[in-house]
Amino acid sequence: MSKILKYFLVTLLSISLVTGIISVSFSQQKVAPGQYATIAEYQKVSGKKITKFSEAPQLADLVKQGKLPSVEKRLSEEPAVVEPIEEIGQYGGSLQGPHLGRSPQYTRITYEPLVRWNLETDKVIPNVAKSWKISNGGKVITFYLRKGMKWSDGEPFTADDIIFWYEDITLNKDLTPVFPAWLIAGGKPGKVEKVDNYTVRFVFDVPYTFLLQRIASGQDCYAPKHYLKKFHPKYTSMDEIMKQAKEEGFDAWYKLFSTKATRWQNKALPVVTAWKVITPLSDAVFTAERNPYYWKVDPAGNQLPYIDKIVWTLSPDREVRVMKHISGEASIGYYDTFESDYTIVMENQQKGGYRVLKWLPALTNVGTLFINQNVKDPVLKKLFTNVQFRRALSLAINRNEIAQLIYSGNATPRQAVPFKGSPYYEERFEKSYIEYNPKKASQMLDQVGLAKRDKDGYRIGPDGKTLEILIEVLPGIGPEPDIAEMIKGYFRNVGLKVSVKTEETSLWVTRAKAGEQQIGLYASAGAYYPLLDPVWFFPVSDFCYWAPLCGLWYSSNGKSGEEPSGEIKQLLNVYDQAVLAVGEKERTLLIKRALDIYSKNLWTIGIVAPNTRLVIVKNELRNVPEVTIHENINNCPGHTNPEQWFFKK
Known about the structure:
By secondary structure, this protein is of the alpha+beta class. Among the domains are: 1-30; 366-609, Dipeptide-binding Protein, Domain 3 (Dipeptide-binding Protein, domain 3, Roll).
């Protein structure tokens, strides 16, 4: 063989090898975990083709028995693709554990809005809608739905289900007395219009691209018309509806409708989520089973979810729930907080067969004091609306001691403002009046007219009576009652007579929303995006626990509640401007201006924030991220795609 031929063959072989390597690298390139809008998008990103579909063994058996259509017919024409966090999973198993009887524990892992947050919570991506288009300068947002997508009962999911939600639920005064604030832009309600069976558009009088983030934060803009119209007087006679309502113990049609439309209570309600309720959340044992018509697959074409069912046992007592987790009886603990149990949680990992993940916390604070600006008592109102009084309360609290005794040092003293890492963070917001200075606090209380004391050393109010304050505590997912008792002691040290009362959830929330509380104590959130979880910072609804009646005034366009004044009204004006801001730079400046007003006024008084959010996960439960943002807006852990969690055998 000539030297030239040898050289040619070696060169050709080298090129072939290089070409082969490049070809392999393109076809097997690393794909970021998370959700991709369609198979076509996934193929474009990964270079991999999905040519066939598979399903859970139980569903395959039902197909063989003729009780279900084939998986190809159950999936939409354009299913979403979920790239697993670790690996392709295995079918089977039950997600087990305790629950509080609160709906967010379930709605968070069945998070399916039109668009959603990605795994990093820094971008809105398609979900139920496969894509969207912004037009007319941001005044029109058009959503394109998935052809062939179905509800859990096999009925088509179409634009009619979105129009039903808008026209027959949102615009119905009985079902929705107050038009949703998130659907208002420039002071005017938005409109939703059907373009065709798989296209809808949201139309506003002003640019409102912020709608995408609002929807991604958990607004379900759809409802199964084919099922719920049976309970709506527009489609069914009122006599027929009321007959059923009375049989089920309701005195109004809309109460029956609302119950039928609640997906964690009504097992007959069709859904588009990965699991479907079998026994309601109010039962001693809550169960949900896989949705056979779920519209997402993994890269191997396996229809999700991997896990067969959810089985949760009602456990209102927090200590019982913690013990269930550390004894290994629970699959994952993402709703409770375990930071105050740090030592026992970490020591029992091997015995309990679990690992502890340290996620980034959503709670800006635990033990937050909500100083009710709408308090009924005239003496307290004069004090509570005085910023010097609120600042004195803040200075009286020894946050470092709380962090050490309650959290073993795994918490940081701070106000209830966004964390470092948020585009809106500033250190001065976080540290506003957090130093422990009881001497200065006492001086400030003297200056606001509380210099006189009774025989027991408690301060006398302007009405000549001993000033008494009630702190109402919502015991929940953290050590709020213990923090409340410590705060009571700090306030006693500066001459304030305080009582602490722990209340059941529904009572606490009802009293807070009605403005009946004096000071409420709970946790607070909004750690990264205040506009998307606004009630902690802005009185935009009666869920703003520090000014619920101002929030009612705002959400009802002044028809109800109590009109705010001064800096609270200024705060709301800045909020309105920030929501309508076209660019992120302008929005950031406005939010920081709002946080400046908020942090100086201390309408809420922050105590401490856990440094991490501990999440307990059984060792065999996989595809759960080691680190992620535990936020309200991403419905954590919903943004991690729980449908791709699985039990490794």
